[in-house]
Amino acid sequence: MNLESRHRFTFSTHGEHFLLDGEPMQIRSGELHPARIPHEYWQHRIRMTRAMGMNCVALYVMWNYHETHKGVFDFESADRDIAAFIRLCQSEGMWVLLRPGPYVCAEWDLGGLPSYLLSEPDIRLRTDSATDPRYMAAVARYIGALAPRVLPLMIEHGGPILMIQIENEFGSYASNPAYLEELRQRWLAAGIDGPFYTEDGLPQLERNRTTVAGGAIALSNGDAARIAAARHAFPTVPVMAGEVYPGWLTHWGEAGFAGKDYDLSGVLAELMRRQLSFNLYVIHGGTSFGFYAGANVDDAGNYQPDITSYDYCAPINEQGAATPKYRKYREIIAGYLPEPLPDVPEAIATLECAGSGALLPTRYASIWDNLPAALPREPGGKPHSFEHYGQAFGFALYRKALPAHAVGALDISGVHDYATVFVDDRYVGAVSRMRMPLARAQPLNVMHRAPLALPSTTPNHEAKPDEEFSLDILVEGMGRVNFGPEIVDRKGLFEPVRLKNADGSLAWLTDWEVFLLPMDETFIANLQEGCANPLKPGLFFKASLVLDTVGDTWLDMSHWTKGVVWVNGHNLGRYWHIGPQQRLYCPAPWLTQGVNEVLVFDLHQVESKPVRLADSLS
């Protein structure tokens, strides 16, 4: 099939089949996320997908990855050039299912919605313009920026895009036909008339009827039986298994990587035997570099942030290598196809020194010596969220002067999501929104929604009546919730912030100074060397990695506590000693022959520890 010529993709009259040029077509799709893969590796991952027997690539477009500031879009730079990725799929003989949201879930911060939406205190997300015109105005701006790039890539114009998904798993969020139809109309107004489809779990689809006019249906956790059930309930449109899970997501603090024991052999064989269409979510997960990993909230209301790796125990692992699952599934699929599959691409090279080399970073800078100017104090001096101040990711320092005779317990149970607390220069403990394993929390005095005891502020002398001390609360915003009704998830320090005095009385704390610490490229590039107080946690450590040749590697952070790593200015993501992830993936394109700079920011450690190079995630 020549994908460079024009084709026609439609549905059969009674929905039995997807049709390519009038003939039944089985969509065999593997999900890839360009935002989680360095662009230098896009072609390799697409070829790996094709060699497993797929004829299609499904991909999310993460809105907040492309509109990083309100009204400022980037669809052109290297890792954000969606059109280039789609054209690459076409050049490799692959069709495309486009999943542009606006909401995508994807274990991605806020499900792909831009955090600036949360600067509006009463915003309503994922709803129609009659309910909240502010949200839909932003959506219209996003579709308006994306659609011109998509239009020439639709199948009717000679491109590889078969269908565009409207929203994502909306039945798990609400029932609002007007919203889904308004999204469809936005695409129509942009000159794209489909075909469209929706994605939902079968129970949610049956309960909320979350389809669009003339659109196909894709099923989360789909298989042959669920496809049959959906076809019975919706007999006029075709149905595919839109998310078939070969692995699963992993949260910080869990015992191990989820999804290792999944075996899709039976599900795949039945889909192939019956020529049913499907999409493996994900065939290759990649990495949630930077601060983009999302989070969940469980049924008990517990916050569950996702790890940095999106390996997902998928058939193609985080580095792009074929796993035993890959080889097993490839053999099953090949058995139902008339033509042999292409050879599996060669594996990506790994650093030869991985597994033996170790770095020992040296103390480089302190966050306390790199504070920007404090924001102007607002009336009442209440603490506000990152979003209120226009910050998307990173950290913020909330500072409050207290009388030196103050003593008691600090209640900051509303912190989102992790805070280290200091009385003057003394670390007194941390507060975590997430429940941490007890053994991991005790050495650091980490509390979960419980008051944090403050020590006496005048241990060595009698306080003067007007003497004050500084209370510093350094807050890390971790992943925003990406699924379910709790997605309005702002970051920072929230009221009530109270000091419980020794006599039992409560004092509400106001009049805060706020220092924004986004830890973005600009902030890191302008970091000033020096540590006035090397014993106050919140330090940067630096090491040089000298290479004769480059290759993929992992940085083993198992000797460190909690923080972020940059290599040559690229943010590899978060590490946390509670695991299960202890190693951060560093792709070869981010390294160079010669000297490479490794920068570590740790919230707790004041002494450097080794960083070993490794050759795998675990």
TrEMBL record:
Catalytic reaction annotation: Hydrolysis of terminal non-reducing beta-D-galactose residues in beta-D-galactosides
Gene3D superfamilies documented for this protein: Galactose-binding domain-like, Glycosidases
Protein name: Beta-galactosidase
Glycoside hydrolase 35 catalytic domain location: 18-334
Domain of life of the native organism: Bacteria
Organism of derivation: Paraburkholderia unamae
Domain Beta-galactosidase 1-like first all-beta stretches: 383-516
Keywords from the UniProt entry: Glycosidase, Hydrolase
Family, per entry: Belongs to the glycosyl hydrolase 35 family.
Cited PANTHER family: BETA-GALACTOSIDASE RELATED
Domain annotation Beta-galactosidase galactose-binding: ranges: 539-596
EC number: 3.2.1.23
UniProt cross-references to InterPro entries, sorted A to Z: B-gal_1-like (IPR026283), BetaGal1-like_ABD1 (IPR048912), BetaGal_gal-bd (IPR048913), Galactose-bd-like_sf (IPR008979), GH (IPR017853), Gly_Hdrlase_35_cat (IPR031330), Glyco_hydro_35_CS (IPR019801), Glycoside_Hdrlase_35 (IPR001944)
Pfam families associated with the record: BetaGal_ABD_1, BetaGal_gal-bd, Glyco_hydro_35
